[in-house]
Amino acid sequence: MWKFKTPGIPDDEFERAEKVPITKEEVRVIQISKARLKPGQIVYDIGCGSGSISIEAALQIESSGKVLAIDYDETAIELTKRNIEKFGLTNISVIHGNAKEKILELEEADTIFIGGTGGDTKEIVELCENKLKTNGRIVIGIILIETLYSVLQVLEKLQFESVDITQVTISKSRKTTTGTMMLARNPVTIISATRI
Ligand SMILES: C[S@@+](CC[C@H](N)C(=O)[O-])C[C@H]1O[C@@H](n2cnc3c(N)ncnc32)[C@H](O)[C@@H]1O
């Protein structure tokens, strides 16, 4: 059982798999902060990957809330399940399948995280607009510039306000034989907005 409620679980606390990318600790902290989670909320984690966002969100919404973690990749689903068990959480349901179809079956959400769309960005963001409660929050983590462009285009046409775009490039230290150098990771853009 993880003993802290504050976000920012170190990456190496999670079970990992080579072909399943994880949202790194510092980026995850920003995403959780942008979501403004409260106890009792219903949260989707679309493209849950390793489940790291689901786990951080589950800790914030406490046992009265529920995370619905969706991924179409079987390895990601197994990994998310292993992490849920490792962190001893009971408020996450794991859903295997394409978010395009699975979202339709879900109850309304207070908050939606999108970590992957597999190229169906427009369709998935539109479905999320339909499922988000008024004043609900959407938080999208973006690596590809094509995805960034699609999200901006689609958000403009939908019922969202207070669109915030934040781009971060995290550098982490590495010891060398002569000192400590900083190594930059790829930039990540985080788009968040509120459903009108
Ligand atoms: C960058 S990873 C997400 C990382 C995750 N936030 C974490 O911390 O581990 C993106 C994930 O989205 C999933 N994905 C992409 N498109 C999807 C879709 N249409 N439906 C369900 N899962 C999808 C991929 O299989 C992948 O596991």
Automatic annotation (TrEMBL):
Keyword Phosphoprotein on entry: no
InterPro entries: CbiT, Cbl_synth_MTase_CbiT, Cobalamin_biosynth_MTase, Methyltranfer_dom, SAM-dependent_MTases_sf
Catalysed conversion reaction: Co-precorrin-6B + S-adenosyl-L-methionine = Co-precorrin-7 + S-adenosyl-L-homocysteine + CO2
Record domain Methyltransferase: where: 38-141
Binding site for S-adenosyl-L-methionine: T23, G47, C48, G49, S50, G51, D71, A99
Pfam families in UniProt: Methyltransf_31
Record keywords, A-Z: Cobalamin biosynthesis, Methyltransferase, S-adenosyl-L-methionine, Transferase
NCBIfam families recorded: CbiT
Protein name stated in the entry: Probable cobalt-precorrin-6B C(15)-methyltransferase (decarboxylating)
